[in-house]
Amino acid sequence: MHRALTPRSPRPPRLLLAALLPALAACATSSECPEGPVETPTTDTPSPRATSREAPATVAGPLRVAVTIDDLPAHGPLPPGETQLSVHTAILDVLDAHRVPAVYGFINAGKLERAPADRAVLELWRDRGHPLGNHTYSHADINKVGAAAFIAEIERNDAALAELVGDTPAARRSRRAFRYPYLRQGADAETLDTVRDYLLEHDYRLAEVTVDFGDWAYNPPYARCRQQGDDDAIADLRWSFIATGLAFLRWSDQTARALEERRVPHVLLLHSGGFDAVALDELLSAYERQGEVEWITLDEALADPLYQRDVRAPSEYGGTLLEQIIERDAPAPAPVPFMIQPLGLLENFCT
Ligand SMILES: [Zn+2]
């Protein structure tokens, strides 16, 4: 699980909680939802701030997005009849069908202690040509364990990664991509700096995220709905998942353009859960169709100057890179509505 099932953080006061997706929220508890994803406005409207200057060339063209998958080899409850191997095979099949290149799977090797057979999931990911990165050994919350234990978690997971992918220069580079669990980097400056300095001194690349729409929260209700055979509820989950995913991609694109005055490549966070597996094809298709998205690798995204910043914004709640920049710099970008996931509503599905 990525975060608690609550609206995840109080926002900086400069961000207005203006857009709560009221139609989506209503739909999430109703069986009278439209079948397909909601029509969203196009994403090519420059912010007022951006229009005050000459539009950079990078504003034009497709929206480049890197897909990343967290919590391998197991995330959330399995739907009936599925195995971790079947879930991950389905995810990889969709990624390949959409020609999404080099999708990082960020692993918690500690999960193999309880389910050693799930090692086959990690080997499958590797053997199908996708890289594996570090997400700590047991999905540690830095706010709970502190800097020293968190670093030990990174090192223990790296040892497991070395057994999986080896120790060649290419393998070491793969292993040196790090994703903070819960996107939390430390609630205080000392903790954040201690871990950040360790990561940078050991040549880790920070796999920051710019698009996080709470995909993980759909996996528990989906497993329950499958158990009950409630196809109408599953259809509602699908609708909500796609609409929320589209809305958050648009928010991230507009916010980044307001902050950077240009279009930047994005990093999408998804999880290796049962609902992700069945909704992924529709999500990627919706992004390609409505967002004119072009799939890129994580390293292509991280090469952008946006990701070269060493943003250090202590926060109890964590967040995407865009949220960190806003938290730290308070740059007061053009007023882009903040989006809220319908997380609490998902708890009521198929209970
Ligand atoms: Zn995670």
Textual characterization of the structure:
This protein has 351 residues and is of the alpha/beta class. It has one domain: Glycoside hydrolase/deacetylase (TIM Barrel, Alpha-Beta Barrel). 45% of the residues lie in helices and 9% in strands. It is built from 14 helices and 7 strands. The strands form 2 sheets. Strands 1, 2, 3, 6 and 7 form a 5-stranded parallel β-sheet that branches. Strands 4-5 form a two-stranded parallel ribbon. Strand 2, helix 4 (119-127) and strand 3 (132-134) form a beta-alpha-beta unit. Helix 3 runs parallel beside helix 4 (119-127), helix 8 runs antiparallel to helix 9 (231-260) and helix 9 (231-260) packs across helix 10. It is globular, with a radius of gyration of 19 Å. Residues 1-58 have low confidence and may be disordered. The site of zinc ion has 6 residues, from strand 1.
User: What ligand species are in this complex?
Assistant: zinc ion
Mean pLDDT: 83
**Global geometry:** globular
Highest-level CATH class:
Alpha Beta
Helix content range? 40-55%
Offer a quick outline of the entry.
This protein is α/β, with parallel strands linked by helices and 351 residues long. The protein has helices spanning 22-28, 48-51, 84-97, 119-127, 142-165, 169-175, 189-201, 219-228, 231-260, 274-290, 298-302, 305-308, 321-329, 343-346; strands at 63-72, 104-107, 132-134, 177-178, 205-206, 266-271, 293-296.
